[in-house]
Amino acid sequence: MNRTVLDRIALVLVIIGAINWLLIGFRGYNLVAEVASLIGMGSSFLRIIYSIVGLSGLYAISLLFREAEPAKEQA
Fold first, then answer.
1. Residue 32: C-alpha distances to residues 1, 4, 23, 28, 71 (Å)
2. Residue 52 neighbours by CB under 8 Å, 6+ apart
3. Is 0.70 topped by the overall pTM?
4. Given this model, what pLDDT does residue 74 score?
């Protein structure tokens, strides 16, 4: 299946979100909040980032239900 640019962006954001939750679960460390703090962004910025990651997750659900393209035969 050919992935669009939007598909790839959504998957990258979902992976970043998953890694962040892994760090929170294992170490109690929120990487996204730490990066936002380092660049001087507040809680509004974090809410926007978390919302974008969440929307990416919802979009990624659609990837599960797409039909795969038939495999091309090698000559």
1. 31, 26, 10, 12, 39
2. 13
3. yes
4. 73
